[in-house]
Amino acid sequence: MKRAAGLSLLLLGVLVFQAVSCGKKAPPFLPERKFSPAVTALTAEWRDGSVRLTGNVVSRNGQAANASDVVGCRVYHAGYDLETPPCEGCPIAFEMFEEIEGPVVETGRFRCQVSGIEKKGIHYFRVRLLGRNGVSGPSSNTAKVVVEEMT
C-alpha cells in the first residue's frame, strides 16, 4: 500500500513538472546592437520663444559618432517656477517632452529647436539620440535655461 501511494505521488510529480515545462519555445535570436551615440556638453538657450539645444555627439568610446546612424532625438523636460527652484543636487523628475524626427546631428554637433515652453520659470532638459527601429542612446547631461520673459 505504501509502495502504491509513493509510486502514484511520484507519477503526479512527474506530470506536474511536465505540464509546467512544456510549451512553445521561441527561436534563438541575436540581441540588438546597442546604440551608442550620445550628446555631451548639452547647453540650452532661450531664443525667440523657443529653446535651442546644442552639444557634441560622441560614441561610446569617445570618438566622433557617425551622424548617419542618428534619425532623431527624444527631448526630456522638467520645469519649475522661478520662486520655487529645486535645491542644488536634488533629483529632477524628467518627463518625455517631445520626439523629434529628422537631422539633428551634423559634423559631430547636436542641434535642435524645442518649442512649446508656455510659462516662465527654470527649465531643465536632457536628450537621447534615436537610431533606427526606435533604439535610443544614453542620456545626455542636464542643461538648464531660465525663462524670465515670454516673447
Defining key terms:
151 residues, mainly beta, Immunoglobulin-like, 4-stranded antiparallel sheet, 8 strands
Oligomer: single chain
Total tally of structural domains: 1
Shape: elongated
Output the radius of gyration.
Answer: 26 Å
- Percent of residues in helices: 10-25%
Give the helix/strand class: mainly beta
Listing every helix as H and every strand as E from the N terminus to the C terminus, the arrangement reads HEEEEEEEE
The name of the CATH topology is: Immunoglobulin-like
Number of helices: 1
How are the strands of the largest sheet arranged? Answer: 1-2-6-5
Folded structure, characterized:
- The protein has a single domain (about 40-145), classed as Immunoglobulins (Immunoglobulin-like, Sandwich).
- The protein is built from 1 helix and 8 strands; from the N terminus they run αββββββββ.
- The strands form 2 sheets. It has a 4-stranded antiparallel β-sheet with strand order 1-2-6-5, with no helix packed on it. It has a 4-stranded antiparallel β-sheet with strand order 4-3-7-8, with no helix packed on it.
- It is elongated and about 90 Å long.
- β1 (about 40-45) and β2 form a beta hairpin.
- With about 150 residues, the protein is mainly β.
